[in-house]
Design goal:
Structural class: mainly beta
Largest sheet: 8 strands, antiparallel
Order of helices and strands: EEEEEEEEEEEEEEEEE
Oligomer: single chain
CATH topology: Jelly Rolls
CATH architecture: Sandwich
Shape: globular
Number of domains: 1
Number of strands: 17
Helix content: under 10%
Radius of gyration: 16 Å
Number of helices: 0
Strand content: over 45%
């Protein structure tokens, strides 16, 4: 969603995401704001990818948010040509204010930024927060060069034209743009897509975690995060 390009972390888009049903209160996220996003991500690199796939459940996330104070927490995956390019395609779940329907809540979403700097986001609709529901996400090549098709739970949603058609950087995890964000534990399972559309592991996997958050790589192509 609305991402800021930060030192070692690829710009991430934005919406807010939710996880499980309500859980015990957790600490807030000092230092995270709309002007300085925090991340807990696992980055895959080192080989060429043609899209990505991921699954995770709707664990609990929360933040106070409104149109006049559009904060968010999200759990997402995004695909980029490389780590230094400010262009990407992403999809995930977000909790907070979502500008497309001009509403607050828990939304499934897609977003992208083109190589020319154009940004756009899509709402896939409000969803119910439930740790008993696992969603699947996919970003895969479209039928036209430099386009990608975005799917949510196996349903096609949109095909943005972004200016690239393959990439070497896959990120999955959390983006937090609020000092009041909370989140339970998210267990996320990403795969890259190869030229034949098969699911493959992420290549070189690099954890990148900002201090207000927690992140852990429990195994190949798996990422766990929460707000401690």
């Amino acid at each position: 969603m609305r991402k800021g390009f930060r030192a070692a972390v690829v710009t991430a888009c934005v919406v807010t995401v939710g996880l499980v049903a309500p859980q015990a209160a957790r600490a807030s996220t000092p230092g995270c704001s709309l002007s300085s996003h925090c991340y807990s991500i696992l980055r895959g690199s080192g080989i060429t990818f043609y899209g990505m796939y991921g699954t995770w459940n709707r664990a609990a996330m929360g933040t106070s948010s409104s149109a006049s104070n559009p904060q968010f927490v999200d759990s997402e995956m995004w695909f980029s040509p490389n780590a230094s390019t400010n262009a990407w395609v992403e999809t995930g779940l977000a909790r907070g204010y979502f500008s497309v329907p001009a509403a607050t809540g828990y939304y499934a979403f897609g977003a992208y930024q083109t190589t020319g700097g154009t940004y756009h986001e899509y709402s896939f609709g409000a969803v119910s927060q439930s740790s008993g529901v696992t969603d699947e996400y996919q970003i895969s090549r479209g039928g036209t060069t430099n386009t990608f098709r975005i799917y949510f739970d196996g349903s096609y949603k949109t095909t943005p034209s972004v200016g690239f058609w393959s990439g070497s950087t896959l990120d999955i995890g959390a983006e937090v743009a609020t000092s009041s964000g909370t989140a339970g534990t998210f267990n996320m399972y990403p795969k890259g897509l190869n030229s034949g559309g098969s699911h493959v592991n992420l290549g070189t996997e690099t954890p990148m975690v900002d201090s207000p958050l927690y992140g852990n790589r429990p195994g190949e192509s798996a990422w766990t995060w929460r707000i401690p």
